[in-house]
Amino acid sequence: MKFFLFKLILIITAGLPLKWLHGLGKAIGKLSWLSNSRIRRIAEKNIQLCFPQLNAQQQTDLVKKILNETGKVILEAGKMWQQHPTDTLALVRECENEHLIKQAQLQGRGVILAIPHYGSWELVGLYCARHYAMTSMYAPQQDSHADNLIRQARQRTGAKLVPTDISGIRAMSKALKQAELVAILPDQSPAENGLFVPFFKHLCYTMTLLPKLAKKTNAVVLYTYAQRLPDSSGFKLIFRESSVDLATLELEQASMQMNLDVEKLICETPHQYQWTYKRFKKQPEGNTAIY
Description:
Elements: H1 2-14, H2 18-34, H3 38-50, H4 56-81, H5 85-89, E1 92-96, H6 99-106, E2 111-114, H7 121-131, E3 134-138, H8 144-155, E4 160-163, H9 166-177, E5 181-184, E6 195-199, E7 202-206, H10 209-217, E8 220-228, E9 235-241, H11 251-266
Parallel strand pairs: 1-9, 2-5, 2-8, 3-4, 3-5
Antiparallel strand pairs: 6-7, 8-9
């Protein structure tokens, strides 16, 4: 019953204008603030850690904006998962530096799209899979109905989803060696095989899969996000080169550089990043818990 209610909400929101959804999203954000919700407290802690240069009022204003954006993310799910893909992709109003993908492929190099939890990350995947051969990892959901819905949604523009195991890693390596695209969330906290490296000057357990793949396959890393336009008319897709070619760096150095590049990207529109995520939950042994 819960799933069918969830799907009904997705179908209804898929049909509403984006401006309406964003208006309702702001209402959800305001409610999250007024109720002193769990996500408000997480966001507050993250902003205190990562933006100490802001005074108390500036931090408060930023957290309120973050909660508004979180509400928008929730209500955009219908358009990302249920709306006809042609209509969803029509929300992309502009692309900045997309030529970097072709540039890498002309050099015979695959492209790792480093897509943080930032803006509309689902839209980035839908857009790139429509225009390029793209492989992405996917962790199955426990609920079979939800799993089928999300899997179909993410594959409907052509993406190839692979499991989060050694077979999936092999599939991504093969795709990169064929100068195709692979999509990875660089800020996803790994269950294992991570490294503690700085993120906004604080130790953060960071995935190593992305830099390992770049090194192994000589792939180009492009940092990518779909920025919400201020008038709620759609999104601008932004592609950024890595400051240093990660394929040329050793693992720890590459992991540090990856986090620095993600930081730089986030600082373009900091309120659109998912600061409601416990990015610093895992700490080195002996360190005080952050949350």
